[in-house]
Amino acid sequence: MEKANTNNDMVVPPDRLRLKDVMVRYGSFLALDNINLVIRPGEFLSLLGPSGSGKSTILNVINGAAQPDAGSVLIDGRDVTDVPARDRGLGMVFQNYALLPHMNVFDNIAFPLRVRKWPADRIRHAVADILRRMGLEGFAHRKPRELSGGQQQRVGIARCLVYSPSIILMDEPLGALDKNMREQMQDEIKTLHHATGATFLYVTHDQEEALNLSDRICLMNRGRIEQIGSPQEMYFRPVSEFAATFLGESNILSGCLAGKDLFQSDCGLSIHVEGRPDIAVGGAARLLLRPEHIMCVTPSADMPNRFVFIVENVNFVGGFIRVTVRGRGGGRLQFKARAHNDYANLQVDSEIHLGWLPSDTVLLPA
Ligand code: ADP
Ligand code: MG
């Protein structure tokens, strides 16, 4: 007889949030196409993607503002697809703050507690406490219009945190703020994530924001999940040209896979790469080269991918230079590189030796 395996008896915490086979249609338009997503307890997960890719629709399906045409939403293992929004126990922060303009800060923050019928003195304590934590003491009696954008969003976040939801949904909460305020608020949101231990699902179209904040990023493309992974996985191991170009600066070469570890570019370069089991030898492929991996090397440098070019054109674009070079075979290669000293004295018509490591290249499907 088999002995019971005690490991199987251990209580495994359920996923905090799970979308199963979720579809959303607007007329004939498929806004969400078979979304399967698991969010772990305490995780900070960002939904990243271009405008119209379905990020807000995912949030709306989770918070009950939109009903999926198929599939289900589970919170802590419980199917809540048919549970009304207010009974799902979620916190929500919007881009446009969604504060009630005729109410002062105190009443805005107290609003969800009054809806939940908390007694007055408990509300007073809770609001005072969150005002302090959000650096909003002294603002309790102001109306939203008497606050800056950053302060209004602090009120929006305070109103969400005040009843300690275990899941917090944020839809481009910093989208209306200027760059400096956005960076400051990113730090505050990070601190809140650590302090509350809550699970965050955060929508943004800003790749830097997603890289900075997230434990994992879910990249959306036309209503589907393109890729999901840690910021490092997304940046260093993108699965597609879409993912490679959406996160970070990139150079994409088209060509074909000439051998298991050899890429032949259309511009005439034979480049040693790391093969990928799902890309067949002989088939069309793309190659990703991040700008920071392209090195100016000496003519005698011993490396597997070293090429001589003639410089045709150099453009300085902030932290990057855009260089066009011509190979011996005549093919052109345009690439971005980090603007550092290596490239300080690049002269048009001069020779340049460029090199990169096979392990720094990423093969992508064509
Ligand atoms: P994102 O938040 O990534 O910008 P959305 O989730 O808001 O994208 O929208 C995804 C797609 O669904 C868009 O093409 C949008 O126009 C469409 N859409 C969203 N809401 C509606 C609606 N209520 N009626 C019709 N189309 C909608
Ligand atoms: Mg949106």
Low-confidence stretches: 1-6
The strands making up the biggest β-sheet line up spatially as: 6-7-8-3-9-10
Second CATH tier, the architecture of the largest domain: 3-Layer(aba) Sandwich
User: What is the 3D shape?
Assistant: elongated
Pfam family, one: TOBE_2
Protein name: ABC transporter domain-containing protein
GO molecular function: ATP binding; ATP hydrolysis activity; transmembrane transporter activity
InterPro entries: AAA+_ATPase (IPR003593), ABC_SmlMolc_Importer (IPR050093), ABC_transporter-like_ATP-bd (IPR003439), ABC_transporter-like_CS (IPR017871), Mo/tungstate-bd_C_term_dom (IPR008995), P-loop_NTPase (IPR027417), Transp-assoc_OB_typ2 (IPR013611)
Briefly characterize the structure.
By secondary structure, the chain is an alpha+beta fold. The chain has helices spanning 6-9, 55-63, 105-115, 120-133, 149-161, 179-196, 207-213, 231-236, 241-246, and strands at 17-26, 29-39, 44-48, 70-75, 78-79, 90-93, 167-171, 199-204, 216-221, 224-229, 251-259, 262-265, 270-272, 284-289, 295-296, 306-317, 320-327, 332-338, 351-355, 361-365. It has two domains: 17-236, Rossmann fold, CATH 3.40.50.300; 249-365, OB fold (Dihydrolipoamide Acetyltransferase, E2P) (Beta Barrel).
Protein described:
This protein is α+β, with helices and mostly antiparallel strands. The protein has 2 domains: 17-236, P-loop containing nucleotide triphosphate hydrolases (Rossmann fold); 249-365, Nucleic acid-binding proteins (OB fold (Dihydrolipoamide Acetyltransferase, E2P), Beta Barrel). It has helices at 6-9, 55-63, 105-115, 120-133, 149-161, 179-196, 207-213, 231-236, 241-246, and strands at 17-26, 29-39, 44-48, 70-75, 78-79, 90-93, 167-171, 199-204, 216-221, 224-229, 251-259, 262-265, 270-272, 284-289, 295-296, 306-317, 320-327, 332-338, 351-355, 361-365. The chain has a 6-stranded mixed sheet, sandwiched between helices. Strands 13-12-11-14-20 form a 5-stranded antiparallel sheet. A hairpin with a 2-residue loop joins strand 1 and strand 2 (29-39). Helix 3 crosses helix 4 and helix 3 (105-115) packs parallel to helix 5 (149-161). It is elongated. The protein starts with 5 loop residues before the first helix and ends with a strand. The structure holds adenosine-5'-diphosphate and magnesium ion. Magnesium ion binds at residues 55-56.
